[in-house]
């Protein structure tokens, strides 16, 4: 049995089908990126994995059990889609990371040591006492990742982590994700619009638009047929060598999708 198993998953919200007959298997230690058009059900799929939304039909198992147990046992770290609310909340970076240990049976000192260790791990040492809302987009993202990792989860789920982060910060972010996966053998599930980048470092791609139009090796994803099916649009594949800052580091290919 795979580490994460999604079998014949269908989700309806108020009679409209949001996800239909989704089948996904993820092995431990894999990086799987979910791509697809806006409104295609990516966040909904993540909500099911987080146990926040019940399947209308089908089965979702994490390590053989209902997602509820995975959450309860701190098996999943989650970096949500960026919300404006967090920016306005005057809270220190260290406190944000400590939130990730709520419900953990540890002493105050143990929690503090762990939080400081993970702040250092994400390259934010020295920013502990800064107001979270005043950090740059890339710095906030690192703090949110420290918060997700501090409870030592087996799975890290990120929903559109690069949105609102500048290109140079995005590059080091992808390098960081790769290192994290290699060092901690953590399973990573990530929603991204940055197809050129994710294809180059993910093991598998899930192309989602209500149905799963593609699920397989990342290296076989980038065909015109796959992209047309997924985006139901006129898709042009543009090959760049050095114009695209984000891509040149990972893949000399950039995508332009025209609707
Ligand atoms: N709570 C909800 N009530 C009604 N419709 C919803 C709800 N959540 C999501 N949807 C609908 O489900 C579809 C998929 O949304 P979502 O999973 O957020 O897509 P994505 O993350 O791929 O942009 C959209 O059409 C959205 O309007
Ligand atoms: Mg979404």
TrEMBL record:
Keywords: ATP-binding, Hydrolase, Nucleotide-binding, Transport. InterPro entries: AAA+_ATPase (IPR003593), ABC_transporter-like_ATP-bd (IPR003439), ABC_transporter-like_CS (IPR017871), Metal_Ion_Import_ABC (IPR050153), P-loop_NTPase (IPR027417). The keyword Transport applies. It is an enzyme of class 3 (hydrolase). Its EC number is 3.6.3.31. SMART domains: AAA. GO terms for molecular function: ATP binding; ATP hydrolysis activity. It comes from the Bacteria. Residues 4-235 form the ABC transporter domain. Coiled coil: none annotated. PANTHER family: METAL TRANSPORT SYSTEM ATP-BINDING PROTEIN TM_0124-RELATED. Belongs to the ABC transporter superfamily. This is Spermidine/putrescine import ATP-binding protein PotA.
């Amino acid at each position: 049995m795979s580490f994460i198993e999604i079998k014949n998953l269908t989700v309806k919200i108020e009679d409209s089908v949001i996800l239909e007959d989704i089948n996904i298997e993820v092995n431990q230690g894999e990086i799987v990126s979910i791509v697809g058009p806006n409104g295609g059900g990516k966040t909904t799929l993540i909500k099911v994995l987080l146990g926040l939304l019940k399947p209308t039909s089908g089965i979702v198992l994490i390590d053989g059990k209902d997602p509820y147990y995975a959450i309860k046992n701190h098996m999943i770290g989650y970096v949500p889609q960026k919300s404006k609310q967090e920016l306005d909340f005057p809270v220190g970076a260290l406190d944000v990371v400590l939130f990730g240990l709520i419900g953990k049976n540890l002493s105050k000192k143990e929690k503090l040591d762990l939080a400081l260790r993970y702040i250092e791990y994400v390259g934010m040492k020295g920013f502990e006492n800064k107001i979270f809302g005043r950090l740059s987009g890339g710095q906030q993202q690192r703090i949110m990742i420290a918060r997700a990792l501090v409870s030592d989860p087996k799975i890290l789920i990120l929903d559109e982590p690069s949105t609102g982060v500048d290109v140079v910060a995005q590059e080091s972010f992808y390098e960081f994700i790769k290192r994290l996966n290699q060092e901690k053998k953590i399973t990573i599930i990530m929603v991204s619009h940055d197809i050129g980048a994710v294809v180059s470092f993910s093991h598998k791609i899930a192309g989602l638009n209500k149905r799963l139009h593609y699920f397989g090796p990342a290296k076989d994803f980038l065909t015109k047929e796959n992209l047309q099916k997924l985006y139901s649009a006129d898709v042009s594949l543009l090959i760049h060598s050095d114009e695209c800052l984000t891509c040149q580091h990972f893949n000399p290919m950039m995508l332009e999708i025209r609707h």
